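Tutorial handout. Part one gives the primary structure; part two gives the three-dimensional structure as tokens.
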Amino acid sequence: MRSRSMALLLGMAGCASHGASRCPGHGTAFAPPTVPPELEVPDGNELTLVAAGAGVQIYECAADTGGVLAWQLHAPRAELFDGCGALLGSHFGGVDKGLPAGPYWEAKDGSRVHGANPVSVPNGGAIPLLRVEAADTSGIGVFANVTFIQRLNTTGGVAPPGACEAGRRTEVRYTATYYFYSKS
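Part two.
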């Protein structure tokens, strides 16, 4: 399963052919993807990094606004890879690391971006496509100047159907391509 997932991820991120000196998705210029209007990134932001993500969406059984038990998103947990399959960093929820709520992306170089103000578009059979603004960044490195993130090409990750038991957690595998933008 891991090798099949990696092959899919590399295809999504555009892995370079054998012998290439540079991996797509990092340190190269490229055009932003075509997205629904709601997910467009404002002018003045340049696509600076593309990463393939593979991991899980963690769901917890909790009462919804009507008091009915249902699977609620707890947090993501995923690894991020460049176009050649090298590990770039990780994606996680602040709740699991003692940080303010929301999604985080952290590079191996120590730089980090915290997302806020998500805008989503349904993606039948998979977690929604997203555009997230950077609430704050830290460190010096690839995520230090990120202003927006798009989560596209999603597969899997949707909450399980049916009833659940209060307090129970489950993990659902997903993949996505993450597009990182910085001020140009």
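Part three, for discussion. Residues 9 and 99 are 28 Å apart (CA to CA). DSSP finds one helix and eight strands in the chain.
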